[in-house]
Amino acid sequence: MSLEDMADEWILNAISWDLVIVDETHRLLGQEQLYREVQKLSQTATHLLLLSATPIQERNEEYRKLLALLSPEQYGKMTEGEFVTLVRKQSRVQKAVNQQVKRLPRYNEYFEEIIEKLTQIAEMLEDKAFNKLVAAINTDSFRTVYPR
After folding, report:
1. Most CB contacts within 10 A, which of 4, 14, 41, 116?
2. Contact, 38 vs 22, CB < 8 A?
3. In Å, how far from its chain's centre is CA 81?
4. Cβ–Cβ under 8 Å, residues 69 and 42
5. What are the boundaries of each domain within the chain?
């Protein structure tokens, strides 16, 4: 069904959708009624695939709105400010992780710095499971196996 057919609201209610594919997803951002219709579908469909060849860079609110279609419970009620904070945090985490990945081939030299950075990443993420994993790393085993 095309986006234009979405105006027929009976279609939305009459069929239980397993998979909804939305091509040219970026068009939804300029058409509030169409966005709301796809949003309704996203809450009831089993799977939703959004396609667009138009990049969304540095347009956080548009990005958040599209993510809200995919994960309404996580992004649907998030404010633009909260989302910007999340994107910034994600960027810092990504840079820190990439730095540690580069150090891994020489981890016997850098294991203390890697552990310290992992601890900082865990604090940034505020993720209890990740915090537990980092806390469980036995640095003494590194010193035994890979002495400096």
Report:
1. 41
2. yes
3. 16
4. yes
5. 3-78, 82-145
